[in-house]
Amino acid sequence: MSFPRFWAILRKEFRHILRDRRLLFLVTVSPAIMLTAFAYVFSFDLNPARFAIYDQDRSPQSRDLVAALSHDRNLIVMGEVARYEDLEKGMAAGEIKLGLVIPPGFGRNLQSGHRVTVQVLGEGSDAINTSTEMGLLASRITEWGSQYETLTLSQPVALRAITLYNPDIKGRYSMVPALLAIAMILPSMAVALALAREKELGSFESLIATPVTAWEYIPGKLIPYIFFGMISAALAVGIAVLWFRVPMRGSYWNLAGFTLLYLWATLGVSIFISNFISNQSTALRAVLLLFLVPSFFLTGLIVPIDEQARLVAFTLPATHYIAINRAVFLKAQGWGPLGFHAFVLLSMGLLATLFTILTFKKRVG
């Protein structure tokens, strides 16, 4: 690898982006605009959930309630925990969305004709589904408790709802960080169009006559788009925090590191695909088909990830970046809890870049 040739490619690409106003707009400003538009469109509330139970009573009545909830097709009981802290840990890790706490004396008080209170704990970082899921669980508990109603006691089972990370269950608090993953797909679209444009206009042909190698050309192409992508990410995060008032409980530096990995993954895959595409329209359709459309419906952005589609969702960079953003913004999590997602993004970027270099050929057609 020749550093002077790599530096020439790098300088050329920076100049190309800075001189092409449409490309510069697509790489830097458009993600912030897309985030703003989508945040207003997708701020609504939805459904289904996994939940765990903390039964402190262990009475026949509490067992009967657990059995009734276990047989509900709309509720997925993940099991029971031994401590209250286990519910919080499960929610922080994204393993469960709801928790039900049954207090001591639950069965005895019901039999005595007294009203009892159970606690429903919700994971508010996914506000779109949490409010509906909590409402569904509450309604099932109320239905079960109706068998203990008397002439003097209605609604014998009262509910105390607590929502972690997003107490007011604001849709924008969960949607805006997640939509960053969609908005940040635009730089990958830009690099795909830029590579295809070079082939269409014939400027790629001049590369054939130079001694530039794939190890110099591909990183030289990739780094400028990652650089401008980080600028666009900073603008988008600024809009999320300052305009939409999404709380940033985590570290901006951690978010910057995760964003760098996400950009590398998406841009790497995009540049790999563009290696086999010779026109801009095909490149655009490929990015839309592989990134944009699946990222809306398979990544947990709007509805929970379907178990049958989990493997496909796992291969999408947006799946991991959505989980990362919600955790950083609302749960203040860092590299430890989110290390798996970071590793997947790093692997995607590294493998995509390596495969692009290995399959790169200096020829047209």
What is the percentage of strand-forming residues?
A: 5-15%
Helix-strand pattern: HHEHEHEHEHEHHHHHHHHH
Number of helices in the DSSP assignment: 15
Give, in spatial order, the strands making up the sheet with the most strands: 2-1-3-4-5
Form type: elongated
Radius of gyration from CA coordinates = 25 Å
Main beta sheet: 5 strands, mixed
Report mean pLDDT, rounded to a whole number.
Answer: 84
Please count the beta strands (DSSP E, at least 2 residues each): 5
Number of domains: 2
Helical content stands at: 55-70%
Class based on secondary structure composition and strand pairing: alpha/beta
Question: How would you sum up this structure, described in words?
Answer:
The protein has helices at 3-19, 21-41, 60-70, 84-92, 106-111, 127-145, 171-183, 186-201, 203-208, 214-243, 252-274, 280-297, 310-314, 317-331, 339-359, and strands at residues 49-55, 75-80, 98-102, 116-123, 157-164. The protein is of the alpha/beta class and 365 residues long. A five-stranded mixed sheet has the order 2-1-3-4-5, sandwiched between helices. It is elongated and about 90 Å long.
